[in-house]
Structure prediction request, 239 residues.
Amino acid sequence: MKSKFHFLIYIFVLITTNSACTTTYPRVEQDLKDYDHKIEKMNKDFSVTPENTDSIEWVKSKLDHMFEIDQYMRNYWSTPIEKDYSVDERNQFNQEFFKRNNKLDSQNTADTKMLLKKYEWFKISVFGEKADNQGWLLVQHADLDVEFQKQVLTILERLYPLQETKPANYAYLFDRVAISSNDPKNRKPQRYGTQGQCVGPGQWEPWPIEDEKNVDKRRKSMGLRTMAEYKALFKDICH
Prediction:
């Protein structure tokens, strides 16, 4: 359960400081090196298998790989908490890791686009539910390319009534696109209440929702739990 919601939490850690770090902190540098080494090894291990986009099995293994490095990176955002960093150490880590976050997301987005040039989507009837979920999560995290997210949203809107993608995936991506505009004037209320932020220890609140009094009805239609149940999931995640 925890991994599914990392993208809702750690995105808010990315911009915790705008100050410039002038001091190098040894254990932060070591943790960053450990991360770089792990990602390099994961990519090297996967590259042993020759690329073959014509093979459904290879595409599924590619999605597996992209999902794994995505989750490893997002889990690594918790390093400052796990290592009990000082404020200055946390600032340095956040500034340096933000670059790594964007680099990995950009590469995964480019690779997902490459796959979708051949396949409209990772349809459940062809690739299975796991690939559908992994593909969706990679697009959900493609925040540096909102136009791409919008294109995929249009595809999922057509496919979820056909049971070729999970309805919840469409709901999450709809909300992500609605609130992700770089220009606040272009942001729209979300429809399903899936996107929000921690507002205190154990407390999470959604960003503005259209017709909020009926949100649970819409959530139920997409296979989502109630807002109260959803908020409760963040009790041990929001620090």
Summary: The first strand starts at residue 196 and ends at 200.
